[in-house]
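Re: weekly structure request thread

Next one in the queue (155 aa):
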Amino acid sequence: MNYKKPELLIPASSLEVLRTAVMFGADAVYIGGEAFGLRAKAKNFSSEEMAEGVAFAHAHGVKVYVTANILAHNYDLDGAREYFKELDVIKPDAVIISDPGMFTIAKEELHDIDIHISTQANNTNYMTYNFWWNQGATRVVSARELSLEEIKEIR
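Done, posted below.
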C-alpha cells in the first residue's frame, strides 16, 4: 500500500508564531486575515503581514493556508471578492472555506491556489466529499465529530 506522510499543520496567530512553527518543522501553517475568518476577533494578519509570512514560509519550503471560513451574508460577498483578489497576489498555497458562496467567488478570483473545505462545513458523509471534489476542492477536512471508523468508511 502507498501511504502518504501526514502533514504537520500548525495554526499561526502572528508572524512570530508563523516563524516559530516554520523553524521547528511545520509542513504547513494556517493563518487568518483581518476579515472572513471565524476567528475575526483574534489577532490576525494584515495583508502586509500575510505577504511577509507567505514569503518567509515559502523560502523555507513550508505551505501557508489562509482561512476564509465564515458563513457569508450578502453584505460579505463584495468584500470577499476583493479579499480573494488580494490573496491571488499574495499567493498562499490554499484557502480554507466552508461556505458555497465564498467557494464560488474563490474559484472565480484565485489562480494556482488550492481550495480546501473547512471542518466547519460539517463534512460527515462520502456524498459531501464527492460534491466538493466535483466542484474543484483539493482537500475536504472531516467534521470533528466523525469516528475513525466513519472516516475509513468515507475514504
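The longest strand covers residues 28-32. The helical segments are 15-23, 47-59, 74-90, 100-109, 126-135, 148-154.
Next request, please.
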